[in-house]
Structures are given as structure tokens and as C-alpha cells.
């Protein structure tokens, strides 16, 4: 292969014959310790595959002498953090619900914990930023408009039992009649009552029709939504006079709502989340900007 | 040249043991001083105290990893101010460029820990086993009683130095006196013992046995530094035009070099500087000292081996006057490095004095961009991150610029004050509301300047409260 061996003149070291841009590669010997280190790394590698999971087999890899497992390590970490958090969780469960947002220590623990629980369990419907889905019936939890109340106790109740589900007998339940579909009102009456709702929510409306609609409203809607249209949280009847409409406040959407009614469902969480988790997520939701103080007795 | 019948060279070579002889001279003296000063800084620094008040550690130099703080005398660095460290690293890099382009591998020869500790280990070696000849004899000797005893003493001393090195290192990361006490009675954290064990082992092995092998095979600096030198860089060189042909002085025609091998015998890298500038030379200057002793003895001028630049060679060979040292040092290249180095340094100092003792960061919550309230008002949410670098609890008041149309609230209260404990970071949610049908509520973007005023510690009225501002944007419902 290399018929004649050439020596570099100044260093008297043999060259490999490789030349790049006039620079010759010298064939200096490797230090012997380097070879030993190389052998050691191989021995270390073999030892490593014995000590730790390494060789893939048919159903799983070799387990390794130390039985090291990331899964077990994570489980241990979780157990360790659970143990460390046990006292604060216990005091969170023991605390008076209304007092939690004012308690610095509980709040400091509950808000980040609740945020993480929210992102895992609630964000699917309410959105990762808790803004819900406007016009689709997933309530925005950031504003100050509540269907069933926005103080700690009300939020806690909603999360624990859910809304209008059939799985939890304690779920709060309300049902608006399908005024159009069930032929309770005719199309004219529905058009009139929609004008009335547009009027009380401060939007452009047909005054004559709205006046007629006021009567229809008083007879059919006021029982739940109240005379003034401010809603009733006891029954989950939304406030019709404010700027926020869960499904949309325009003429077409309102007509559709009166015709077919709406039936938003939230599952109960008591069987999925522990009491401390429910309280944490309630504290988080309460902190988002719409949290209310408990009603005066 | 060709040698077709020679055996192929071995692929591997054993390390040639090196027994540097003792030498006296200017560079050796300089190196003793540098070694003393640098080792003293390394060992003493963690024990210096610096009073920072009751809530902060009183160690002058401390990298408090657990609490994410770095303390250096009056300077305290928080994680978000890591650019200071980056700036220092840039300065270290530029400094290295400067020194290397001016005077070659001075870092390698005088300041590198590998050089300093190896020097210290060779000193210990000489105390225990004697100078070069005695050490060579001992090396060739069989493992008799003398050799066993001397080696045991030497290795023990090396191990103790290694232990001290690793021991001093861990003191930089926690309170040194406490850790010292804990290390002694066995209650220190395992990581402290592990770190000490690793550093003891590496110091022992690198300083005692690996020595020049680290510089030649393990270290990238020799390659990088060589790229920063040019023909005006001062490096250590032999003057063959004066020294050659080497040999006996009384023979006519011989040069000044009497081939006494002094320069080779003192070299910690085991090289012959007379072969010319080479990768293994760390420019420690000991061959200069050794040669000067010989030149003095035979009555010849000094500096047969000395600091010289490539350009000097041509001038000296031609018998022309050489450039002065200052001309070698002050060149456009070194001046540029100095200016850059000084510029970064000044910028860091200015930044250090400009930073305030509290710090605020505002992150607008943009998921969603805005929230409409039931009365039609538009609200934006901002995450405030307040850092209180004072040694005591301070409260801070948040307000919008004067005459601003926005209403601020926090926790449902219009009182927007945040109490931040001493030396901590606190986050708070600030709600900013624009009234229904206001201009800000109806347009897409409105500039918003938030003022954060330091109200000082509770109960103490600040006469001249410090305040900072943060500019952000308010999003309205643009339809």
C-alpha cells in the first residue's frame, strides 16, 4: 500500500503521505495511556450494560443489576412530593372555603397546584387560558359573569358535582323549555321576545316588537330570568341584560336559543379529583379575575 | 528521505518520564510568586467575610446554587442577571486573546492551574526525592525500602494537596466555616464529599502523573492559542544564529551553545527548545533561566534563549537593530483587543451601577388577549414579577401613568400593592380595565406604562421613593 515511507525533514517523523494545502500529516504514535483509556472505556461500557438496563430483548430490555428504572424514580419523586405536601393539603381541606383566597400560605400553594390541575382536566372545554369558547357554550371563567355563582363555595360546588349531568344526583340542574321546537310559542312570539331581549341587553331592536315581546317575556321567561332579565343564579338562569352571552347575543343566535333551548353539561369531578385538588382548582378559578366574596348572610 | 527497509513505527509510545532539574533565575522567581499569590487567592477567598445584613450570607465570594444567588463582595448577582457572568467570560476570552497575541502562551506557562499545580507537585517531589539526578536514580532503582518510603511520603503529600484543592473548591458553594465543621464531623452533604473525592483524585493524577500529557494531548488551548499568534508575538525561542554550531567553547568556529543540556533538563515538558517553537512548549521561561546561568558561567552574553518574535530573527540575522519590546506589545491587534476588553469591562461596570435594588418584569397574559366584563368593560391581565433585592421586606405600589383611563385592581381590590419579602421574587396578577365604550376598550392597541414605586420597608416612610416603569400594551375589542 504505502511502498515508500517518507520522513518529515524538520521533525524526522514519518508522514502518512496525506497532504492538505501543503500541510503533511505526521505519523506520530499515540500515547500508550490513551490506548489504555480506550480499553477502559470498553470495559466500563460492558460494566454499564450489566449495571443498567441496556440490551433489548423480545418483550423488554435487560433490567440491569441495580434495577434502575425511570418509572420507579418518577413514582418515588411523586411519593416524596406528596408526602412533603401532605400537611398543606390537609390544611387546605380543613380550611373554611371562603377564607382560602385570603390565606397567603394556602393561596400560594393552591393557585399553582390548581393551575396544573386545570390544564390537565378542565382546559379541554374551558381552554388553557380559562377563556372558554365564546359562542359555543363553554363559559369564560375570567369574566365576572357567573351562571351558578362565583364565590368559593359556589365554584367548589360546581366542580364537585358538575352541572346538568345524570351521573351525579347532586349536580345542579335546570332546563330551559324548547319554546319553538315544542310549540310553546309561535314564530311571531319568539321574534317579539327576541326583540325584547335585544332591548334589555342594550342592543339595537325593533321597539314595537319589543313592546309586544315584553308581555311574552313576562309570561314565559321571567319565572327563571326574573322580571328585569337579570337572571337567577339559584336556577342557573343567565343574566340577559349584560354584555356577555354564552352562546351569542345577536338576533339569529337568540332566536335559535329560544327555539331549541340550550343544555350545557359539565361532568362531576368528585370521582376524578380529590377534595384538596378540587379546592385547589376552585381557588385557581377564583383567582382568575371573576372571583366573588361570599354573599352577605 | 526514504527508508524502505526500516521496521514500521510503533503505533503506540510509552510516556517518557521527565525529571525537571531545579533552576534559579528571574522567571523561576516570578513563577514562585505567581504560584504563591494564585494558590493563596484560591485557598483564602472562601474564608473572607463580607457583612450584607441579617438576611444574607456573610461570605465574600459565594456561589449559592441552592438559592440561585452569586455573591462577590459588594456585588450580588441573581439568575436573571447572568449576563454579568457572560460578560466576564467574554472579558476572560478577550484577555486571553490579548495576552496570547502579545506574549504567546503566557496563560499556559504561568497561570494555568495544570501548570501551577504541576509546579507545586514537582516542588514536593524534589523535597522528598531530591533533584533530577537523585530522582532518575530512584526511578531506576528496584522497589527497596528507600524507594517505598520515599514514594509513600511523596504520594501522601500529593494526596493531601489534592484533598486541600478539592476541599477549597466546595467552600465556594456554601458557608465555608459551617461546611468545614460539617466535613470534619461527617455531616456534610454527600455531594460535598463526592466533589472533594473527584477533585482530589484528578489533582493527584493530573499533577502527579499526567502532567505534560494533559497539555499535549488533552488540552485544546495549545491549538487555539497558536492560531492567535503572529510574527510579532513574543515567544520563547533559541537563537541558532548565535548558538550554532554547538559544542566545546575552545574549538574555533563553534557558537555560544555548549550543548550543556541545561535547557532540556529543567524543562517540565521534556522538550528541547533548540528544536524551535513547538506545540509542547508552554513558554514557562525556565529554559531561559537555565541557559542564562550557563552563559554567565562561560562569560557569554545572556539570552541565547529568550523571549523573541519571529520578526526579530530576520533582523538579528542581518545584524540590524531589533524592534523594542514595546513595539512588539503595542500593535494594532493588541490595541484592538485591549479596547474591546476595556469596552466590555466599562459596560459591565456601568450596568452594575445602573441596576436598581428592585426589579420588575411584566408579562401580559395573552390567552385570551382581553376579557369582556358583564358591563361591557374590557380587561387585560398582566403577570407581574417583582424582585426585591433589598435586605428587608419592601412593599411596592403599582399604578398606571398619570391621567391614564385605566382602572387597576389586584385580588379584586383597587389597592394595588404587593409586599415582597427580602431577597425574594414574587408574582402577582394585575387586572387593568378600560371602561365600556372608552377609547382603549374599542381600539386594538393602547400603549400602557405601568409605574412600580418602592414604598420601602413596612412602617418606614421613604423620603425619596425609587420607582421603575414598564411599558406594555393594552388590547381592546376592536370591532
Structure overview:
The complex is a heterodimer of chains A (297) and B (479). Chain A has helices spanning 32-51, 70-94, 104-126, 152-161, 187-200, 207-220, 222-225, 251-260, 275-286, and strands at 15-20, 23-26, 30-31. The termini of chain A are far apart. Chain A contains 9 helices and 3 strands; from the N terminus they run E-E-E-H-H-H-H-H-H-H-H-H. Chain B is α+β, with helices and mostly antiparallel strands. In chain B, helix 4 runs antiparallel to helix 6, helix 4 (113-129) crosses helix 8 (190-210) and helix 6 packs across helix 8 (190-210). The relative contact order of chain B is 0.10. The model of chain B has no long low-confidence stretch (mean pLDDT 89). The interface between A and B is medium-sized, with 35 and 33 residues.
Short précis:
The complex is a heterodimer of chains A (297) and B (479). Helix content of chain A is 44%, strand content 4%.
In whole angstroms, the N-to-C terminal distance of chain B is 87 Å
Radius of gyration of chain B: 33 Å
Could you name the ranges of chain A where pLDDT drops below 50 across 5 or more consecutive residues?
Answer: none
Low-pLDDT residue intervals, each spanning 5 or more residues of chain B: none
- Report the sheet with the most strands of chain A, covering strand number, pairing sense and barrel closure: 2 strands, antiparallel
Average pLDDT number of chain B: 89
Task: Give the strand order of the largest sheet of chain A, numbering strands 1, 2, ... along the chain.
Answer: 1-2
Q: What is the number of helical segments of chain A per DSSP (H or I, 4+ residues)?
A: 9
Strand elements of chain B, count: 15
Radius of gyration of chain A: 35 Å
Question: How would you name the oligomeric state of the polypeptide chains in this document?
Answer: heterodimer
Based on CA inertia axes, which overall geometry of chain B fits? elongated
In angstroms, what separates the terminal alpha carbons of chain A? 101 Å
Q: What is the helical fraction of chain B, as a range of percent?
A: 40-55%
- Helix and strand composition category of chain A: mainly alpha
User: Number of helix segments of chain B?
Assistant: 17
Return the string of H and E elements of chain A: EEEHHHHHHHHH
Amino acid at each position: 500500500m504505502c511502498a515508500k515511507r517518507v520522513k518529515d525533514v524538520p521533525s524526522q517523523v514519518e508522514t502518512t503521505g496525506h497532504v492538505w494545502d501543503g500541510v503533511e500529516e505526521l505519523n506520530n504514535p499515540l500515547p500508550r495511556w490513551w490506548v489504555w483509556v480506550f480499553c477502559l472505556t470498553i470495559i466500563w461500557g460492558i460494566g454499564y450494560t450489566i449495571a443498567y438496563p441496556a440490551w433489548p430483548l423480545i418483550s423488554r430490555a435487560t433490567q440491569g443489576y441495580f434495577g434502575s428504572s425511570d418509572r420507579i424514580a418518577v413514582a418515588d419523586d411523586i411519593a416524596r412530593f406528596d408526602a412533603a405536601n401532605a400537611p398543606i393539603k390537609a390544611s387546605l381541606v380543613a380550611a373554611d372555603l371562603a377564607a382560602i383566597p385570603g390565606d397567603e400560605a394556602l393561596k400560594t400553594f393552591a393557585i399553582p397546584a390548581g393551575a396544573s390541575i386545570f390544564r390537565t382536566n378542565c382546559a379541554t372545554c374551558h381552554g388553557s387560558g380559562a377563556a372558554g369558547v365564546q359562542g359555543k357554550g363553554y363559559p369564560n371563567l375570567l369574566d365576572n359573569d357567573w351562571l351558578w355563582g362565583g364565590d368559593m363555595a359556589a365554584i367548589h360546588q360546581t366542580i364537585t358535582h358538575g352541572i346538568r349531568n345524570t351521573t351525579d344526583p347532586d349536580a345542579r340542574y335546570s332546563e330551559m323549555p324548547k319554546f319553538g321546537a315544542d310549540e310553546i310559542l309561535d314564530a311571531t312570539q319568539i321574534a317579539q321576545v327576541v326583540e325584547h331581549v335585544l332591548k334589555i341587553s342594550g342592543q339595537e331592536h325593533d321597539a314595537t316588537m319589543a313592546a309586544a315581546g315584553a308581555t311574552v317575556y313576562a309570561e314565559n321567561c321571567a319565572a327563571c330570568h326574573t322580571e328585569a332579565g337579570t337572571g337567577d343564579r339559584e336556577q342557573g338562569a343567565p343574566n340577559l341584560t349584560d354584555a356577555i352571552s354564552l352562546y351569542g347575543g345577536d338576533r339569529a343566535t337568540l332566536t335559535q336559543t329560544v327555539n331549541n333551548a340550550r343544555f350545557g353539561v359539565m361532568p362531576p369531578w368528585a370521582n376524578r379529583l380529590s377534595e384538596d385538588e378540587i379546592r385547589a382548582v376552585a381557588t385557581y378559578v377564583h383567582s382568575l379575575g371573576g372571583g366573588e366574596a361570599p354573599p352577605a348572610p | 528521505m526514504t527508508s524502505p527497509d526500516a521496521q514500521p513505527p510503533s503505533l503506540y509510545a510509552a510516556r517518557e518520564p521527565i525529571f525537571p532539574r531545579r533552576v534559579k533565575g528571574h522567571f523561576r522567581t516570578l513563577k514562585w510568586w505567581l504560584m504563591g499569590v494564585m494558590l493563596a487567592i484560591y485557598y483564602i477567598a472562601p474564608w473572607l467575610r463580607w457583612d450584607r445584613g441579617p438576611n444574607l450570607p456573610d461570605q465574600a465570594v459565594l456561589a449559592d446554587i441552592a438559592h440561585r444567588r452569586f455573591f462577590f463582595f459588594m456585588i450580588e448577582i441573581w439568575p436573571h442577571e447572568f449576563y454579568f457572568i457572560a460578560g466576564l467570560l467574554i472579558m476572560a476570552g478577550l484577555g486571553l486573546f490579548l495576552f496570547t497575541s502579545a506574549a504567546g502562551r503566557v496563560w499556559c506557562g504561568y497561570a494555568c492551574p495544570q501548570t501551577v499545580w504541576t509546579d507545586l507537585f514537582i516542588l514536593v517531589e524534589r523535597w522528598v526525592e531530591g533533584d533530577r539526578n537523585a530522582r532518575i536514580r530512584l526511578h531506576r532503582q528496584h522497589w527497596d525500602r528507600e524507594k517505598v518510603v520515599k514514594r509513600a511520603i511523596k504520594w501522601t503529600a500529593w494526596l493531601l494537596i489534592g484533598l486541600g484543592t478539592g476541599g477549597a473548591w466546595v467552600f465556594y458553594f456554601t458557608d465555608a466555616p459551617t461546611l468545614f465543621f460539617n466535613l470534619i464531623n461527617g455531616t456534610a452533604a454527600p455531594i460535598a464529599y463526592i466533589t472533594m473525592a473527584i477533585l482530589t483524585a484528578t489533582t493527584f493524577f493530573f499533577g502527579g502523573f499526567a502532567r505534560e500529557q494533559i497539555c499535549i494531548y488533552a488540552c485544546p488551548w495549545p491549538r487555539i492559542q497558536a492560531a492567535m499568534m503572529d510574527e510579532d508575538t513574543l515567544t520563547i525561542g533559541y537563537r541558532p544564529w548565535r548558538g550554532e554550531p554547538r559544542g566545546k567553547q575552545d574549538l574555533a568556529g563553534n557558537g555560544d551553545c555548549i550543548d550543556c543540556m541545561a535547557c532540556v533538563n529543567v524543562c517540565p515538558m521534556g522538550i528541547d527548545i533548540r528544536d524551535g517553537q513547538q506545540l509542547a512548549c508552554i513558554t514557562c521561561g525556565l529554559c531561559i533561566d537555565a541557559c542564562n546561568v550557563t552563559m554567565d558561567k562561560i562569560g557569554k552574553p545572556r539570552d541565547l534563549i529568550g523571549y523573541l518574535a519571529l520578526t526579530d530573527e530576520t533582523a538579528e540575522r542581518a545584524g540590524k537593530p531589533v524592534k523594542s519590546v514595546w513595539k512588539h506589545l503595542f500593535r494594532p491587534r493588541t490595541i484592538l483587543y485591549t479596547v474591546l476588553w476595556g469596552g466590555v469591562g466599562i459596560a459591565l461596570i456601568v450596568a452594575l451601577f445602573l441596576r436598581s435594588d428592585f426589579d420588575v418584569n411584566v408579562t401580559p397574559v395573552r390567552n385570551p388577549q382581553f376579557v369582556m366584563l358583564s358591563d361591557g368593560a374590557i380587561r387585560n391581565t398582566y403577570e407581574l414579577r417583582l424582585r426585591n433585592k433589598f435586605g428587608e421586606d419592601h412593599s411596592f405600589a403599582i399604578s398606571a401613568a398619570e391621567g391614564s383611563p385605566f382602572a387597576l385592581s389586584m385580588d379584586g381590590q383597587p389597592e394595588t400593592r404587593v409586599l415582597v419579602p427580602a431577597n425574594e421574587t414574587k408574582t402577582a396578577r394585575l387586572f387593568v380595565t378600560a371602561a365600556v365604550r372608552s377609547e382603549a376598550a374599542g381600539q386594538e392597541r393602547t400603549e400602557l406604562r405601568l409605574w412600580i414605586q418602592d414604598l420601602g420597608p413596612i412602617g418606614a416612610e421613604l423620603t425619596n421613593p425609587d420607582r421603575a416603569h414598564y411599558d406594555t400594551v393594552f388590547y381592546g375589542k376592536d370591532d
